[in-house]
Amino acid sequence: MTVPPLVLGCPPDTPLEAAARPGDPAQPSTRGGLGLRIAVATGSGALLVLSFPPYGAWPLAPVSVAALTLACRGQRLPGAFLTGLAAGLALFLPLLHWTSNVGVDAWVALATVEALAIGGLGVVLTVVDRLPGWPVWSAAGWVLEEAVRGRAPFGGFPWGRLAFGQGATPFTEYAAWGGAPLVTFAVALCGSLLAWVALDCLPRPAPGTRRVLRRVLRRVGGVVAVLAVPVVGLVAPVALPVSGTATVAVVQGNVPRLGLEFNAQRAAVLGNHVAATERLGDAIQAGREPQPDLVVWPENSSDIDPLVDPDAAAQIDRAARSVGAPLLVGAVLAGPGRYIRNAGIVWDPVAGPGETYVKRHPVPFAEYVPFRPVLTALIGRFAMVPNDFLAGPTAGTLSVGPVRLGDVICFEVAYDSLVRDTVVGGGRLLVVQTNNATFGRSGETEQQLAMSRLRAVEHGRAVLVAATSGVSAIIGPNGRLQDRAGVFTAKTAVRRLPLADRRTPADRVGAAPEWLLSAVAVGALGAGMFGHRRGSA
After folding, report:
1. 175 phi, psi to nearest 5 deg
2. Strands across the sheet containing 473-475
3. Which of 46, 122, 32 is nearest to 79 (CA)?
4. CA–CA distance, 353 with 327 (Å, rounded to integer)
5. Strands 294-296 and 245-252: what pairing?
6. Pairwise pLDDT comparison (102 vs 423), residue with the higher score
7. Is residue 9 pLDDT above 80, yes or no?
8. What is the C-alpha end-to-end distance of the chain, expressed in Å?
């Protein structure tokens, strides 16, 4: 029986299909068969790593999806889980290697937890491959996997989403229509269609002339579909009208590397940012730089609480007066009680500290320790986190001088809702305050920058990335880099940027695309399981 060209499914007379159906006499039952699939899946994970910064080989993402789809196709469920797990480990162990700076055990544990979600995805891919139109359901499965991994455990960790390797590619514009989940769906759909074309090209018994023609047309249609997904992204940009401009400055003061104890290190970081801002003030007075409307400092630019320490407050006052503009200062604030807070403070050159945003999603095991009494007793290193950071209650929408902006801190840029909330709250410009000094020259900084570029397109806003030691950057609403600083250098960048008041389609629909595509995946999973039970009865 030949499948019509418009029905996306593998004809059942292909050798792979015949060999891969559970219960079929030709089903491989040896460990070698599973071993080959796991090897393919491992290669799939390795290809996906290369699609992310700092490598940036983004076309490998659909190829990786296709390889994992083929590796999982037709397996029994335990084998499918192991196949997906192998792909997940091959992806997350190298992708998250920068977390080994905290501890090798932390790196391996985090990578393993993340990989378990890809194991679950392997099960989904195997179950839905029996359904007509399976490339669509498989692509929705990727969105479901990322939705789960981005929320659990402990609030989730969305690093390694397909979308986050597409900061400046033909798939990027999908973000303006449906956010990062739609970008993931587009990449996964392209890869799933590529797998479908590969399956349809497997050798099979010689057919008649009419069947040959239908097969050729089907394959041509499949190739066109694969290419159409990124092409649609290229021809469907969203450009919001400009509702004003602002001159902004981003200060990367850099950090001292060695030879200072903790308190001296904190004082030196603050001093670096004060000095860099005062140099900017001198350049403004001399006419070498324009007068900024606001100046942005990074996360942890003042680890000394300036609301408590008068010397820190005096230094920040001096810096703000030198440029004649309000600063957005990244600070660690004491209290309430035993807690501390990771905050962005608006510091006016005349009125001093004003509006404050407190980070809403502290990082578990780094900024707070879950089950502290038990885990601290078992793992002594957790005593190095003596105080838990308290989560803030409200979105980071702040008025900094004449500009209403949306502020997120460090890893918060990876969470869709945290960024979207600042735009819905009236942010006309986006800011990412971050401190990547702990991760050195690893890929973490470039990966975070790619997320910021995707957010610019998703929300139609210019984005300022302010990092203590790099990478700081100024990104236009189209996702293009307008300026950037190197790692472990001091640099101040000044640019005039457009402001936006209107919202992109992605902002208007919110999380609906993610929920809808996840529901589609769950429905397809249920249909596939039900069909399997009926077929086995």
Report:
1. -60, -35
2. 397-400, 403-409, 430-434, 463-467, 473-475, 481-484
3. 122
4. 9
5. parallel
6. 423
7. no
8. 23
| Per-residue pLDDT tens over the stretch 29-39 | 333 489 999 99
DSSP 150: T
Q: 287, 324 in Cβ contact below 8 A?
A: no
Most confident of 233-237, 261-265, 533-537: 233-237
Neighbours of 179 (CB within 10 A): 29
List CB contacts of 448: < 8 A, sequence separation 6 or more: 410, 411, 413, 414, 432, 434, 436, 465, 471
Token code pair at residue 212: 């040959």
Helix axes 134-149, 512-536, angle to 10 degrees: 120
| 489 closest CA partner among 507, 508, 510, 471 | 471
- In this prediction, residue 3 carries a pLDDT of 31
187/376 Cα distance (integer angstroms): 42
Both tokens of residue 403? 């500009």
* Catalytically annotated residues: 299, 359, 410
For the chain, list the domains and their CATH numbers: 31-238+512-536 (no CATH), 245-501 (3.60.110.10)
Q: pLDDT higher for 211 or 200?
A: 200
Is the pTM for the entire model greater than 0.85?
A: yes
What pLDDT was estimated at residue 207?
62
In 244-321 the beta strands, taken as DSSP E runs, fall at 245-252, 294-296
Closest to 65 measured CA to CA, from 209, 171, 173: 171
Residue 101 structure tokens: 């700076």
Query: Residue 298 to residues 274, 344, 424, 434: CA-CA distances in angstroms?
Result: 12, 9, 23, 5
